[in-house]
Design a protein that fits this description.
single chain, 374 residues, alpha+beta, 4-stranded antiparallel β-sheet, two-stranded parallel sheet, 36% helix, elongated
Length: 374
Amino acid sequence: MTQYDPEILQSLADQIKTLALSLGFQQCGITGTDLSAEAEPLKAWLDKGYQGEMNYLENHFDKRINPALLTEGTQRIICVRMNCLPPDTKTISVLKNPDQAYISRYTMGRDYHKVMRKKLTQLGKQTEALVGAFGYRAFVDSAPVLERPLARNSGLGWQGKHTLILNRQAGSWFLLGELFVDLPLPIDPPYTEEHCGQCQACIDICPTRAIVAPYQLDARRCISYLTIELKGAIPSEFRPLIGNRIFGCDDCQLICPWNRFARLSDEDDFTPRHNLDRISLLDLQQWDEETFLKRTEGSAIRRTGYSGWQRNIAVALGNSRGGEKVLAALQTMIDGNDPLVREHALWALEHLRNRSADSAAPILTHPRSGKLPD
């Protein structure tokens, strides 16, 4: 692409951003491949063991800090964000009802990896129609890619104290994706400001104290990690704090003042399926493995596997208001053939018995000073 002068390249970058918006992305920025400044903080985070069982985060360290090594010839990275909060989706009321299942709001429709990767590939093809054949590769929360530093460097926003990317006009209810290209496009200025100020609402609200310091997340304590990434038993100390969250956790986003500016998604693929935004724990507990696989086809929820799904539901039932139907459901799980599910169902049964005197009272889900709005 050496035949392009700076004006032509700038025009191409502008056209790419216009195409990105037309495909359903809300913002697009372009950055380079130098992430050497992330080497020391990433190594320190890994050395503390904050990655837990996500051992893949330790692999390909060189490619994480030098994305050009990931795809040969990469000169620039086109970063995009897409709103993910569906309209008419209840959050606080569901989270505060211990008999309902709370599922992280970005996972209730079609798998966002597939949705965004398809659109990024389309962006590559449409760019190819403008410039001819060139090298490109799409990534969405996959491969050894440091998405958040890239998003910040491309001007999409700053990294908040909860470690998510924040945008002054859009809060944090969006997902990130990247298109690696071998075009020498002009680079956008990085987002260098920080607008969290003295606020630490996300730190205070975290049920398990996973945000151990501003901008520092211990994944081993994070409910998203515990309910999605962790494959074995959830540590007993965290089970009462998980409440009714069976797949992920949004508390740090729900409390963030910047999310008053969040925009709802108009992407049909993110519309909740099977009433997952307002379904009861008992209804979900009744899904057998065949039903689970059928109803989560093409969904990010499949990541837990059926065993992990049942494990999470057992914990949530232990944090529910209880009752005969809950006790019967837990007994069914205890009588089943899955030792992981049985262990958590036994805990749930004992937990309900220990608090039987006030089992009708809502579970205390936020033991710290933070409080979710009504």
